[in-house]
Amino acid sequence: MLSLNGKIVAITGASGGIGEATARLLAQRGAAVVLAARRGERIDAIAQDIREEGGRAATCVVDVTKAEDLRRLVSTTVERYGRIDVLVNNAGIAPISPLADLDTEGWSAMIDVNLRGMLNGVAAALPVFREQGRGHLVSIVSVAGLSASPSMAVYAATKNAVRTVHEGLRTESTDGVVRTTAISPGYIRTDLADSMADPALRHRTRENMDAMGIPPEAVARAVAFAIEQPDDVEIGEINVRPTVQA
Q1: For a 10 Å CB count at each end of the chain, is N or C smaller?
Q2: CA-CA-CA-CA torsion for 216, 62, 31, 23, nearest 10 degrees?
Q3: pTM of the model
Q4: What backbone torsions phi and psi does residue 152 show, to the nearest 5 degrees?
Q5: How many angstroms separate the first and last alpha carbons of the chain?
Q6: How far apart are CA 197 and CA 149, in angstroms?
Q7: Which of 113, 17, 36 is nearest to 74 (CA)?
Q8: What is the distance between the alpha carbons of residues 118 and 111, in angstroms, rounded to a whole number?
């Protein structure tokens, strides 16, 4: 029987949505989790809930655009639990807009959070994984990167870049020390639309989420499935979307 008992997992973007659902599910299944996000009060409250339900949870306030914050997350996890088995790169934003709007600030923000934030996680965790002789990098990507859609060019580009980095890391890690998993959600009922500045796009995204979105726990189960595999099994990529999504 596969199990998460004893796994030590750090999760960025854990103050809500997929990150929160993942932290709660992994803790229920026996993992110790470290919740990371900018909203300290929120992750503290979630961690307290987990502990009251008998799980193990700690917190670390993190801005993924800052490399030193990711290093602190990894070191906090190791200091608290003795090692870090898995880093889940989940933090992401989607201030999408047509390219013609020239929202260069939004473009930069997506690059900084979605791509650079993931790379900061790689830079912080990879040396520790190598020192330990084992580690697993999981990143939440997006099905948006699988096809071109209006208003989503830059967002999809950042997610495709993360997917490419994952594949590159996989090819460099065939010694079995580091495993990588990229999980691409479709419409999930989260607050991702809150980061969209365009009112019409934000409204349409929320409508689609309400109409067809599935709970974030669906993605959390995919994360659990990937990390519970034996060390000689790597789940490279999983797409998780509503059955009614085109």
Answers
A1: N
A2: -20
A3: 0.93
A4: -115, 15
A5: 35
A6: 18
A7: 36
A8: 10
Which ranges constitute the DSSP H helices of 82-185? 104-110, 117-132, 153-171
DSSP 214: B
Q: What is the C-alpha separation between 12 and 20, in angstroms, rounded?
A: 9
In the beta sheet, which residues pair with residue 128?
none
Catalytic residue ranges = 155
What does the pLDDT look like over 116-158, one tens digit per residue? 999 999 999 999 999 999 999 999 999 988 877 888 899 999 9
Q: Which amino acid is at 139?
A: S
pLDDT tens digits along 4-40:
999 999 999 999 999 999 999 999 999 999 999 999 9
Q: How far apart are CA 210 and CA 113, in angstroms?
A: 25
Reduced to 3 states, what is the DSSP secondary structure of residue 137?
Answer: strand
Alpha-carbon 104 to chain mean position: 24
Rg value, the chain, Cα: 17
